[in-house]
Design a protein that fits this description.
The complex is a heterodimer. Chain A is of the alpha/beta class. Chain A has 8 helices and 7 strands, in the order αβαααβαβαββββαα. Chain B is of the alpha/beta class. In chain B, helix 2 packs across helix 5, helix 6 packs parallel to helix 8 and helix 11 crosses helix 13. The chains are: A alpha/beta, B alpha/beta.
């Protein structure tokens, strides 16, 4: 299904890859867990009162999850994980939500389940969104996530958890670095 | 193989015979973004190097979420949208026109279409028998560029609204009731299809209310078959040419079926801070309200304003209560003027705003103070939704909202209807 685009011109890939939230990720991630509950909405992730900051994602990222945990952006370090319950990211289609999670340095979001649009957006911006049994992870646990093997190692609790493999189309998009990069590389869809 | 509506539409648009779980690149009929998601879509288009869009007349930018702009950053965002729409030849719907989802059903969507929008409530158009679904800005940017997207064919849950609707019960009560029953992720990744004798007799405007909130159960879209009611609606909109019959085949396979006896449903409320936290109005303690909002893509249509005016006629909004009314579109606004509805609402004490999303998104036009309570006809009551995480949002039908504005606390509209 290699879709050739219409009359559009594709600029060179290097230029297109210079964006701030679509980059290649490493296959093994390491960091600490920040635990959240069920039903974390995009209004909690990227509050509507900062609507005017959507054109300034770096500023918007300073307010990431502040209504769920006011100290979160102060505590989180590059590579750390958001670990949540079910239906993470429900609500609005705002792609700014996974985008600022990535900008804040979060390596991946682990949840029991994801809302559909958030899940799709995460893959599009190159943020791994992984479905696993997060009851077996506590706040501050040290985790190592092997994206290729599909394993979360909870170093603190000395247990390993499997996460559900992504659909093949999403693996292709994520491996290309996000949807923008996928389209540029293939001059259209190649799923 | 007999097909559901969703399977039928996706198969037609991919040139393949698709079933649940299949993934396909499909042609899309309409692509849209709004002022909260459009600027990012524009920057993603530019990042991909696209200088033109595939189907300008079917690509629409709506300025409705913060319209007119309340601050300079958003004015700049609006400018990006206006300039891009102008240079790409896309359709621009500017301030004063109304909410994207209402304008889509009034003017653009045809049965059997695939509609993708950078707004989660794009599912509203499912009421016209279109596969309409929300996505993020990058997916929509690709949709603008190629007039294509990829989709997984969803399984369908059939919802049978049976029995009859009692007086004072509206489509909003049905969908709140359903979401309470199946919860906020009860239809995740699936299509909802609404049928049964009550659904089949609902007016188009009520069907829009139900499809609008499909996403609040996690659904990808919320579909109705087309029928005589659909045909008459499209005829009234001057778009009879695009009517077609669309329905699920006899023998189509559903993931599950849910039967709801509407005769037992009372006026419903969603309590803070989740839509699936539901209860009937008759079962809650007295909840004093500070602000009441009647409008939005869920319940800002003519029949919604009309029922509110029937409740408020000759009455006044209770002292200390703010009633905000936002018609969903310019045509709703004009009709409400012509029918004398707005006069009744204004006389009762309502502040009527220009068509648009109003205070629902928490950007402007009615942000709540700490500790305040709002009863709204919108679709979402998440913490922080209306601009203040220290406020409390309850959801209801327009009749419940209007009567509560008179009483000053959340009240049962059957007392007056």
């Amino acid at each position: 299904m290699n879709e050739v685009n219409h009359k559009n011109k594709i600029k060179n890939e290097a230029e297109a890859n210079s964006g701030n939230f679509s980059s290649k990720k490493s296959e093994v991630l390491y960091g600490r867990a920040f635990k959240f509950g069920d039903g974390i909405s995009t209004d909690l992730i990227a509050p509507g009162r900062y609507f005017h900051l959507r054109s300034n994602l770096t500023e918007l990222a300073k307010h990431l999850l502040e209504d769920a945990d006011p100290e979160f952006t102060k505590k989180v370090k590059r590579g750390d994980f958001i670990v949540a319950g079910k239906n993470f990211g429900l609500g609005s289609s705002r792609e700014h939500a996974p985008a600022i999670i990535k900008i804040a340095g979060v390596g991946a979001v682990l949840a029991k389940s994801f809302a559909r649009i958030f899940f799709r957006n995460s893959i599009n911006v190159g943020l791994p969104a992984l479905i696993c049994d997060t009851d077996k992870i506590n706040s501050c646990d040290e985790l190592e996530v092997d994206l290729r093997k599909g394993i979360v190692s909870n170093i603190t609790q000395k247990i390993e958890l499997d996460f559900n493999p992504l659909p093949e189309v999403m693996i292709k998009i994520l491996n290309d670095g996000g949807l923008v990069e996928h389209i540029v590389k293939n001059k259209g869809f190649n799923l | 193989m007999p097909k559901t509506i969703a399977e039928k539409i996706l198969s037609e648009h991919s040139g393949r015979d698709l079933g649940p779980g299949d993934i396909a690149v499909v042609d899309v009929d309409l692509v849209m973004a709004q002022d909260g998601t459009g600027p990012l879509a524009v920057s993603q288009l530019k990042k991909m190097g696209f200088e033109t869009i595939a189907s300008p007349k079917k690509s629409i930018f709506f300025i409705d979420h913060a319209a007119p702009s309340p601050r300079k950053e958003l004015s700049d965002s609006h400018k990006i949208i206006r300039e891009f729409a102008g240079s790409a030849g896309a359709v621009l719907s500017d301030i004063g026109e109304g909410v994207c989802h209402q304008l889509l059903v009034e003017n653009f969507v045809c049965p059997g279409n695939i509609v993708i929008g950078a707004d989660s409530h794009t599912c509203t158009s499912g009421a016209l028998g279109a596969f309409a679904t929300g996505m993020g800005s990058t997916d929509i940017a690709v949709g603008f560029a190629l007039a294509k997207t990829w989709l997984m064919v969803p399984q369908t849950i059939k919802v049978n609204f049976n029995g009859k609707l009692n007086k004072g019960i509206f489509a909003k009560d049905l969908i709140i009731y359903l979401i309470g029953k199946i919860t906020a992720d009860g239809a995740s990744y699936k299509a909802l299809e609404f049928t049964g004798e009550v659904s089949n007799n609902l007016a188009m405007e009520e069907r829009f209310t139900i499809s609008n909130m499909a996403v609040e159960a996690g659904a990808k879209t919320g579909l109705f078959s087309t029928d005589e009611i659909t045909r008459i609606y499209l005829e009234k909109q001057g778009r009879i040419d695009c009517f077609r019959e669309i329905y699920s085949d006899a023998g189509a396979k559903y993931e599950s079926e849910i039967g709801i006896n509407c005769s037992e449903i009372e006026p419903m409320i969603s309590l803070p801070h989740t839509v699936d936290n539901t209860v009937s109005v008759s079962k809650i303690d007295k909840v004093k309200v500070d602000q009441v909002l009647i409008g939005t893509c869920t319940n800002g249509r003519l029949s919604d304003l009309k029922v509110a005016s029937e409740v408020l006629k000759g009455r006044k909004v209770a002292k200390g209560i703010r009633l905000i009314v936002v018609p969903a579109s310019k045509s709703v606004y004009l009709d409400a003027i012509k029918e004398g509805i707005l006069e009744i609402l204004i006389e009762s004490g309502a502040a009527v705003l220009n068509p648009g999303c109003g205070p629902c998104v928490g950007v402007h036009e009615g942000i709540l103070a700490d500790g305040e309570v709002c009863l709204s006809t919108q679709n979402r009551n998440f913490k922080g939704r209306m601009g203040n995480p220290e406020a409390f949002i309850y959801l209801s039908s327009p009749a419940t909202a209007a009567w509560s504005a008179v009483r000053g606390y959340i009240a049962d509209p059957r007392e007056v209807l």
